[in-house]
Amino acid sequence: MHLAYDVVDVFTDRPFAGNQLAVVHGAGGLSTEQCLALTREFGYSESTFPVPGGAADYATRIFTPEAEIPFAGHPTLGTAWVLRDRGELEADEAVQQCGAGPVGVRFWADRVELSATPRDLAGPVGRELAVELLADVGLGADDLDGDAWVAGCGLTFVHLPVRDEALRRARPSASGFERHVDRLSALGEVRDLLDAVNLYAVAGEAPGLQVHSRVFVPGAGVPEDPATGSAAAGLGMALVARGLLGDGGRYTIRQGVEMGRPSTLHGRVEAADGLATRCHVAGQVRHVARGEILVPELS
């Protein structure tokens, strides 16, 4: 059996930049093992397996090369864009059902935007632990530039603020941070902790910030990710918690530059009483390829 697929680049205004995504159609009957095998065959940071439900809703499964995950940003935007391009989504606003629950999707101008509810927020991370996390990516204590927070809207990252110059020196971790999990979890209730670090540098002032980011996800088989919508959503929560966007606001993220896949992510966070209440991440999508792929027969 063969299934149709599309490949798109997400968070970019041109092909062969941004973050790659494979969207496999007609895969509702596939097993977890078959979805994982197809994801590994494509070799991207994520692949999705959507099942359209109507003009304004669909369900999808999202896989990294290592496992199924409940939510991710660029797969959400890329999948919605592909379904709309195929005529399977007709409304300007839709709902994606995934492991983390319903995620709102909106089409406007030349962008797709997701809207997610904050789930995990803990911190600030103690300086000693933050320095250990920096050491994992080849940086030192002097590179830290503010309080680190644990935050996410379905996938939870450690958001480590550093000086912009330090971002260029960072390197992917050779291993996961299992030894840090207990101390991170002790900061507060954390349900969706991913083995992942979002290094970021901030410029500008509220209500509009410019961010340079690099994201490392060793535990999911992604040494470095060129554009990470889920991290961008959680970053909005961290920016509110740090007081940089205490009343909410917008932030534009530049990511993937060091990988040769420059990406632009447009974040927007709503806040009340010093806490994020809703996180939005938008970007452009470009189509790259379509075809058919053989479905593996697995026992």
From TrEMBL:
Active site: 46
Listed InterPro entries: Phenazine_PhzF-like (IPR003719)
Gene3D superfamilies in alphabetical order: Diaminopimelate Epimerase, Chain A, domain 1
Gene Ontology cellular component list: cytoplasm
GO molecular function terms listed in the Swiss-Prot or TrEMBL record: isomerase activity
NCBIfam families: PhzF_family
Protein name, UniProt field: PhzF family phenazine biosynthesis protein
Gene source species: Nocardioides mesophilus
Taxonomic lineage of the native organism: Bacteria, Bacillati, Actinomycetota, Actinomycetes, Propionibacteriales
